[in-house]
Write a structure and sequence with these properties.
The chain has helices at about 15-20, 40-50, 60-90, 105-115, 155-170, 185-210, 215-225, and strands at about 5-10, 25-30, 95-100, 120-125, 145-150, 175-180. The chain is of the alpha/beta class and about 230 residues long. It has a four-stranded parallel beta sheet, with helices on both faces. The chain has a two-stranded parallel ribbon with strand order 1-2. Helix 3 (about 60-90) packs parallel to helix 6 (about 185-210).
Amino acid sequence: ERGLSPVCVTSGGKLADFAAKHSLDIITIPSGFPPRACLGYSSTQLFFILKHYGLINDSFKSAIENSALLLDAEQKQIMDDADFLADKLLRKVIVLYAEDKYESTALRLKQQINENSKLHCWYNVIPEMNHNELVGWREVNDALAVIILRADDEYTRNRERILFKKDVIVKLSDNVYEIDAKGSDTFEKHFYLIHFGDWLSYYLAVKQGYDPSEIDVLIKLKGHMSSIQ
């Protein structure tokens, strides 16, 4: 109605039928995977759509290629490090912290730990958590384990906030860990942290005897909500 041109990115189903019915542009990605396992497909398509409409240039292509090369080169080390860290996090409530520019990556890791690992997890960002959540670190709590996502492009004052916060927390917990992003730019660093986090959530699931892809309770919720008129 507003004269805009929708583009549908889907693996099929009702959205594909809707696109065909209304003659909308559609990009079909492989089916049969959980949505959280298709981030590479879906995010890549978004960049190409933005390029198609002239909103960005094509520099993203080299960024994607370089990220893939980085992850291929680091794959074994990522898997080994994620496996090692998973042993430290078993039976813990995981708390994630990251600089605000990496909030999306922290949220992704929280969701992966929830869905794949079947564990409780929350996240917060710097500097926001310094205005409130930092006060909550008052007493020793062995049930918590902290992961701080780090990168060498942190804003200088945020780096100082992270160091201060870490000094407060390590006095209350023996379970404080850092994941250092690798990459030559922010794009690569994001995908490095995402890939590391995905493997971490996988190993946490396997070590507990869980199927990472199982989300029965969410399926039951969807069925319950669809039954309500």
